[in-house]
Amino acid sequence: MVNRPPNPAPKPSATNTTKKRIVKKAKKIVKTSQLPTENSQQGGRPVLRRKVKTKKTSSGLASKLAIAILLGSACLVAAFAWVSIELMINPDKVTWLNKLLPAWVKSLTHDENPQTLPQIQSALEQQGTIAGDILPLESGEIETFLLPVFKQAHNCRSDCREIVELRVYQLSQNLELKSKAEKYYTLATQLSITGPEESFVVSPSVDATSENQGSNFVLPVREIGRLEGETSSSGIWLYAQGKHQQESQAIAYGYIFHYNPKRTNLQLMLSWTSPSGQLPKWQQVTGGGAKELVVDQTVGLEPQLNIYQVKPSNFVLNPIQLEQISLQTPALNDAAYQDALLIAKSGLWTPAWEWLQFIQKQRRDKIPAAAQAQIDMIRLHSQLTKAQADTTWASPSQQVLADLIDGRWGKALQVFQASPQNAQEIVTLLKADRGRLWNRVETALQVNPRRPEVQAWGALIIAVQQGQERANTFLEGQTQITKESLAYIQTLLAQVISEQ
C-alpha cells in the first residue's frame, strides 16, 4: 500500500483574514485613543483626550481674538468720532492729519475758507494776540511763510511783546481764488512756545556751589529768524531768541526749530543758552563734510562749546535730530584714550589734544567716527585756550589764568615769581577759584603724579583757601614728590603766606 501524505491545512479564506485585520486595528485604536475615565469604566462611551484638548484651546483663542477685535473696533470708532467732531467744531486742531496723508488727498484745513494776510492779522487781533512780520520760507514768490504770534506782557515798561506761537501758512490751492489779485493762505501747521526758565538760562555761568542757581521764572522769547549757513540736511532751520541781563553779562537764549516742507512739520529741536550772547552757528568741526551746530557757552577765559551733529531719526514727520558730541563715554576702548578724555573733561584741552595726537600716530587701524568726533571737539577747544595763552595780557592774574587753563604750569609759576605785585594779584585770583583750577590740578596729578609744577599749584591753591597747615598735609600725601621739589614748593608757600 502506498502511504498518502496527510491532507494540507485548509487555507484561510480572504474574508476571514480581512476581518481579523479590521479587529486588530480597531483594538489598537481603542487602546491609544480611549481615555480611561469614570464613564468608560461604567460602560459609557470613551472620551478622546486629544480631541477635547484641541477643542478647548481653539475655543479659548477664538474668544480672545474676538475680544481683541471688539476692543480695537471700539477704539477706532471713538477715534473717528473725535476727529469728526473736531473737523466740525475746530478743524485747525486736526491739521496734523495732513502730514500723514498723501498729497492728492484733500486738505483737512480751512481750504474752503482761506484768508488773506490782513484777514489773518485781524483774526489774531480779535483773539488778543499780535501778528508779527512774516518770514518767507521759500525763495521767490511768497507761497509759504512763517508767522510769529506775539502777546503783550503785563506790568512791562519796554519791549513787552513775547512770542507765544509760530504758524506756517501756505498759498491756497483753491482754483477760484488763484485768479484773484489778493493772495489767500491756509494754515499748514502751528506750534505754541513758552520761554525757558531762568535757571536754565544762567546755568553755564553759575558755579555748582553757588546759592543763586536762578529761579523757575519763565523768560520771554522775542525774536525769530532763519539760522544762516549751509547744511547737508534738507528743510529750513530757524532760531528764536531772547536776552537776559545778569550783572555785566547779556545772556542770549532761545530755541532751534526745523521745518520739513515735505510734511509741513515744524519741530522744536534744541533749547540753548549763551553767556557770551552768541547765536548758534553752523561750523565745520569733524571734517566729515557736514557742518555741525555749535553753541558757544564760554564764560570768561573758560571755553565751552556744545557741538551737535545732524543725525537721522525714525520720526516720520521730521526724520532728523540733533545729537550732541559728548565726552562722558569714551568711544574707544583704550586706556590712554580714556585718560586723554579725562584730562579734557577737567578743562585741560591742549594737553589732552597733544596726547590724542600721539595716540593717533601709534594706532594702525582707523579711528571710529564717534571717537574722531570727540577728538575734533577737543582740538577745537584746544585752539581757543592756546590762542588765549599765546596772548600777552596786561594783568598778571589774567596771564596766569590763561596759562593754567591751557596747562602751562611752569610758565604760570614764572609769572607768579616775577614780582611781589604779581604774587599779590595772583593770590586774589586763587582765592576766587570755585573749583575750576583745582579740578585741573587734581586730574593732572591723577594721570601723572610726578609733575612738581602741578604739585606746586595744588599746594598754592590750598594754602590760599585753607591755610599753610592743610597745604603741608597735601604735600605729605604726594608719594611721588622729590626732596628738591618739596623745598622749592615750601619757598613758594612762604611767599604766599607773606602776601595774605
TrEMBL record:
Keywords, in A-Z order: Membrane, Transmembrane, Transmembrane helix
Membrane among keywords: yes
Biased composition (Pro residues): 1-11
Biased amino acid composition, Basic residues: 18-30
Region Disordered, annotated ranges: 1-53
Biased composition (Polar residues): 32-43
Residues annotated as transmembrane: 65-85
Top-level taxon in the UniProt lineage: Bacteria
Protein name from the UniProt record: Uncharacterized protein
